[in-house]
Amino acid sequence: MRFSEELQIAQSLAVEAAALIRKAASEGFECSEKGAGDLVTSADLASDALLTTGLMEAFPDDGILTEESGRVGGSGERVWIIDPLDGTRAFARGEPGVCVHVALHAEGELQLGVVADPRARRVAFAVRGQGAFERDESGDRMRRLQVGSSTGGTPRLVTSRSMSLSRRDALLESCGWSKGPRVRGAGYKTLTICRGEGEVYFSEHPLHVWDTAAPVMIAREAGAFATAPSGAELRFPLRSGWRHDEGMVITAGLDHASALRSLSEGWSALEAAG
C-alpha cells in the first residue's frame, strides 16, 4: 500500500496529540490571543511541537506547514500540513468541535489525511484511492466511511456556531433544507458529513489549508464532494497565502452543483438584506 509508513506515523502522532489535548482539558491550560479575536492555548502549542518534532524525525527531508509555526523543515515537494488543534475556541469553552489534523501533500496533490477526535477517542483517515476509514484509538474497532448516494430525505445543513441562528434559519428556508449540527471546527464539521450526520457543510468565511487539507482528503475518499462555494477547485498553496478565500462547501448524497446554486441564491439574498 502506498504511503503506508506515512499513514502509520501520522495516525500514531495524531493519537498522541489527542491524548495531550485531553490531558490539558482536564488539568488546565493557558489561553491568549495571537491576533485580534484569534485564540491560542498552551495545548495548541504543545500539540504543534509534538507533531512537528515527530514528523521531522521520521521524515527529515519533508517540509511541514502548521498553523502555529508556519512553513518549516525541508524545501522539497513533500509537505505535511498540520492543524495541531482545530477548534481552539471550542476547546477553550469545553465544547465539541476539537480535532487534530495531519495531511501529506506530495506529487502535486493531497495523498493522505488523518483527523483525530480527542473527545470521542476516534481517528478518521484516508489515503488517495484507498477509501476512508474511522477507528477507535486502540484500533480494536474500525469501519469504512462511505457517504450515501442519496439523502433519503431533506438534506441537513451543517454550519459553524459563528453563523448566527437567524442567518442559518433563513438559509435553511431558502434552500428547503433542515437543521444539521451547528458546531465549531472545520474538521469536526467535515466528520459529521462523513459519519452521515449531515449532507451539506457550508463555510461562508475564508479557511486556511491546515483547516481543510486532512478533512477534505477524508471526505473525498468517503465519496463526498468538496469545492469552493463558487464551484472552483480547492487548491492548497504551500509557499504563501495558505488560504481558501471563498470558504468551502462539502456535500454528500445530493447533486453538488444544485446545492451550490441553492447556497449562492440564499446567501446572496441574505447579504442583500443586510
Order of helices and strands: HEEHEEEHEEEEEEHEHEEHEEEH
CATH class of the largest domain: Alpha Beta
How large, in whole angstroms, is the Cα Rg? 18 Å
The biggest sheet amounts to:
8 strands, mixed
- Helix amount, in percent? 25-40%
Classification by helices and strands: alpha+beta
Task: From the structure above, extract its key features.
8-stranded mixed sheet, 17 strands, 274 residues, globular, Fructose-1,6-Bisphosphatase, Chain A, domain 1, 2 domains, D-Maltodextrin-Binding Protein, domain 2, 7 helices, alpha+beta, 5-stranded mixed sheet
Question: How are the SSEs placed, and which strands pair?
Answer:
Blueprint (H helix, E strand, L loop, with lengths): L3 H24 L3 E5 L2 E4 H17 L4 E4 L3 E4 L5 E8 L1 H6 L5 E8 L2 E9 L4 E6 L4 E5 L5 E4 L10 E4 L5 H11 L2 E5 L3 H9 L5 E4 L3 E2 H13 L3 E3 L15 E2 L3 E4 L4 H18 L1
Parallel strand pairs: 3-5, 11-12, 11-13
Antiparallel strand pairs: 1-2, 3-4, 5-6, 6-7, 7-8, 8-9, 9-10, 13-17, 14-16, 15-17
Helix pairs in contact: 1-2, 4-7, 5-6
